[in-house]
């Protein structure tokens, strides 16, 4: 059975909040037995080195917990800036939007994934 | 000529968010497009965090400036922290003393048109960045 978690980041997070999300998400992966995690960053206006590192860490931690992470909805200006900043996010899968991210997870994990919502707001 | 000036404190993690918001508003006011705004706000985020974490807090002074026909945004980060012993090394990608990625300083320099850093051990660090339209 594969369940998918959808995380939508909707606030301009300060660093402690980003760390809280990391912890929150990993415990939810275990609690829900999630096999896939979609992180929707379409509302994020920037991804700096701290947020970038957090996203990479979430992907690594998820992998340890037998879940795949797909980052979806990155704005073009954010992508341009990240490359110039020197943030490559190795090991993090991306998709253009939530639907394509779901497709990617289904093709990797199987079609029985069920979406569960998760609001990172404290 | 300085058209607008805002001074923001950097004492708590939330202050970095606030400085990002001020930078976004002033970049918009200066007439920067979305990609340039994003580059400026990202550089501001990196340097604001540095002033907070490595400098023990400080200030950011943000100015919309005009020189002849060109308009730009200049931001000065000041802290009175321990300073940076080896600035050249600190600018190298991958060098970190905080367990981070070590790309903040060099990355901020790549994102801006102008980048100046002055630091002396025991006296703090001042980083000045500017981007022109």
CATH class of chain A: Alpha Beta
The residue-averaged pLDDT of chain A reads 89
Rg calc of chain A:
13 Å
Low-pLDDT runs of 5+ residues of chain A are none
Care to describe what's here?
Chain A has 122 residues and is of the alpha/beta class. Chain A contains four helices and five strands. Chain A has a five-stranded parallel β-sheet, with helices on both faces. In chain A, helix 1 packs parallel to helix 2. The longest helix of chain A has 18 residues, at 15-32. Chain A is globular and about 35 Å long. Chain A starts with a strand and ends with a strand. The model of chain A has no long low-confidence stretch (mean pLDDT 89). Chain B has a single domain (2-132), classed as 2-Layer Sandwich (Heat Shock Protein 90). In chain B, 37% of the residues lie in helices and 34% in strands. In chain B, strands 1-2-3-5-4 form a five-stranded antiparallel β-sheet, with helices on one face. In chain B, helix 1 packs antiparallel against helix 2. The mean pLDDT of chain B is 96. Chain A binds chain B through residues 12-16, 45-50, 52-53, 75-78, 80-81, 84-87, and chain B through 13-14, 16-17, 20-21, 24, 34-35, 37-39, 41-42, 45-46, 49, 93, 100-101, 103-104, 106-108, 110-111.
Layout of helices and strands, plus pairs?
The complex is a heterodimer of chains A (122) and B (133).
Chain A lengths: L2 E6 L6 H18 L1 E7 L8 H16 L3 E5 L3 H10 L7 E3 L2 H12 L4 E5 L4
Parallel strand pairs in A: 1-2, 1-5, 2-3, 3-4
Helix pairs in contact in A: 1-2
Chain B lengths: L1 E9 L2 H17 L4 H20 L4 E10 L2 E10 L7 H4 L13 H8 L2 E7 L3 E9 L1
Antiparallel strand pairs in B: 1-2, 2-3, 3-5, 4-5
What would you say about this model in short?
The complex is a heterodimer of chains A (122) and B (133). With 122 residues, chain A is α/β, with parallel strands linked by helices. Helices cover 46% and strands 21% of the residues of chain A.
């Amino acid at each position: 059975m594969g369940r998918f978690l959808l995380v939508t980041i909707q606030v301009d997070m300060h660093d402690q909040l980003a760390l809280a999300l990391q912890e929150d998400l990993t415990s939810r992966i275990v609690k829900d037995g999630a096999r896939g995690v979609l992180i929707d960053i379409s509302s994020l206006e920037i991804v700096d080195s701290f947020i970038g590192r957090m996203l990479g860490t979430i992907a690594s931690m998820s992998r340890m917990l037998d879940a795949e992470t797909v980052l979806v909805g990155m704005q073009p200006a954010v992508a341009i800036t990240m490359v110039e900043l020197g943030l490559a996010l190795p090991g993090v899968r991306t998709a253009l939007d939530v639907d394509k991210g779901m497709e990617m997870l289904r093709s990797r994990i199987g079609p029985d994934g069920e979406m569960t919502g998760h609001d990172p707001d404290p | 000529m300085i058209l607008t000036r805002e001074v923001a404190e950097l004492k708590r993690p939330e202050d970095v968010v606030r400085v990002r918001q001020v930078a976004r508003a002033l970049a918009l006011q200066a007439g920067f497009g979305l990609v340039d705004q994003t580059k400026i706000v990202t550089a501001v985020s990196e340097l604001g965090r540095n002033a907070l974490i490595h400098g023990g807090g400080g200030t950011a002074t943000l100015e919309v400036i005009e020189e002849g026909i060109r308009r730009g945004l200049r931001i000065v980060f000041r802290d009175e922290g321990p300073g940076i012993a080896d600035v050249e090394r600190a600018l190298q990608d991958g060098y970190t003393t905080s367990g981070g990625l070590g790309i903040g300083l060099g990355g901020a320099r790549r994102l801006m048109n102008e980048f100046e850093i002055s630091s002396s051990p025991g006296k703090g660090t001042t980083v000045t960045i500017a981007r022109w339209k």
